[in-house]
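Run log, item B.
One chain of 221 residues. Sequence copied directly from the ordering sheet:
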Amino acid sequence: MACPGVRAGKRAAATGHGGDGGVQSLPMEDGEHRELMIAAIAAEGVAHAALVAGDTEAANAAYADAVEKYRASWALAPPKSYGRLVGLLKAAVLGGDAAAGAAEVREALDGDENAAGSPVASYVLAVAALILGDDEAVGPLAEVMDPRGGAFERTATALRALASEDGPAYADAVTAIEADFAARDEHLTGVAIADTAIMLELIARERGLGAQLDSPLVPIP
């Protein structure tokens, strides 16, 4: 029997990786890149389940596996498949390799003319900028995310708050993100976890701005 991550990955691959922990209703062509994305999402599911269970070592190993599979999927995917890079960077951050993941996605998008107008590309670039200490780059990138609304707008608000060192504004924003995940009936990997909130909290704690969310969906050791 397929694990929840595999089942969820196949559903996501049928429509497209949303980049915000959700699923976009965009058709996706078949091919090896699609199978690799399914495998990446499945590896994330294994990692999330281990994190929820308190097995950090197993979680980190599975996150590293997810990073490798997202990397391979990105290399073969059609242009503008930026959700792969979001998945890669989230897995890198949750797996304790944030700086390397941030540098990788920046390099991957260097010279990509389509990235400038993409909310998904702007999202991953804004997260990478925060991780690498390039706070001035975050605001313009967050502005590209805002018109997408919903999860993208909430995350843009959190990113701006972190870049400006506004702890209370960040706490409000990440709390809203956790609440959105808590209200979902389905999660991309099949595991109930607020991976965006975890990613942001790990970045925030490096800056002394962690909101210390008390939620089973945010199992940070």
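Observations after the first pass:
- Residues 32-52 form the longest helix (21 residues).
- Confidence is low (pLDDT under 50) at residues 1-16, 21-27.
Flagged for discussion on Thursday.
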